[in-house]
Amino acid sequence: MLVAFVFGLLGGLIAQTSAASCPAGWDQGDFYGGDRYCYKAVDLTGLTKQARQSAVTSNYCKKFDARAYPASIHSRDEDVWVRRYGNQVGIGLYVRQCATWSKENYKWRDHTPLDYTNWWFKQPDNNGGNERHVVARLTDGSGWEDVCAGDGRDYKKLACKIDLEQELDLESM
Ligand SMILES: [Ca+2]
């Protein structure tokens, strides 16, 4: 009886401390020594121009999971992982509208440090003066390109990411 109770208690403790798993339809990625991150590329091509622009400039990922943000990328492995979702996939790198555009002013929407970049040839170039958002491209060697939110035509998908171990409570974007 006592043994059964102890094992029952242990089982409960193990269940509580084991890693959470990703919601259905999200891919669990194993980076930085753990499997705490979930990824999903949501389609933007079916949206109207206005809805696509809004998806690019706000946290559209929240629509799919309250914990999700446009994906931040912190290593070559994670970069390759996100780029397997295809060409013209939006990531969570941006220059806030109130900030002066500069390469140094790019930030991740989930507030994680900018410790890895993979800019495409001659990017970011702020072509036209209002390129504050970033897509990952697979053409011509692959890499990241800064683009204008505009009508969102540079975007086919948006890569979303959940950190299962962190309850993010950032200001709305
Ligand atoms: Ca550009």
Question: What report would you give on this structure?
Answer:
With 173 residues, the chain is of the alpha+beta class. The protein has one domain (36-163): Mannose-Binding Protein A, Chain A, CATH 3.10.100. 19% of the residues lie in helices and 24% in strands. The chain is built from three helices and eight strands, in the order αββαβαβββββ. It has helices spanning 2-17, 49-57, 76-83, and strands at residues 27-31, 34-43, 69-70, 89-94, 107-108, 133-137, 143-147, 157-163. Strands 1, 2, 3, 4, 5, 6, 7 and 8 form an eight-stranded mixed beta sheet that branches. Mean pLDDT is 87; it is low at 12-17. Bound molecules: calcium ion. The site of calcium ion (CA) has 8 residues, from β7.
Task: Tally the structural domains.
Answer: 1
CATH architecture grouping: Roll
* The CATH homology group name: Mannose-Binding Protein A, subunit A
List low-confidence stretches.
12-17
The major pleated sheet works out as: 8 strands, mixed
Query: Which series of helices and strands comes N to C?
Result: HEEHEHEEEEE
The averaged pLDDT comes out at 87
- Computed over alpha carbons, the radius of gyration is 19 Å
* H/I helix tally: 3
CATH topology: Mannose-Binding Protein A, Chain A
Q: Got a strand count? A: 8
Query: How far apart are the first and last residues' alpha carbons, in Å?
Result: 55 Å
CATH C-level category: Alpha Beta
Give the strand content: 15-25%
Shape: globular
Give the oligomeric state of the chains in this entry, treating copies of one chain as homo and distinct chains as hetero.
Answer: single chain
**What small-molecule ligands were found?**
calcium ion
Helical proportion, percent range: 10-25%
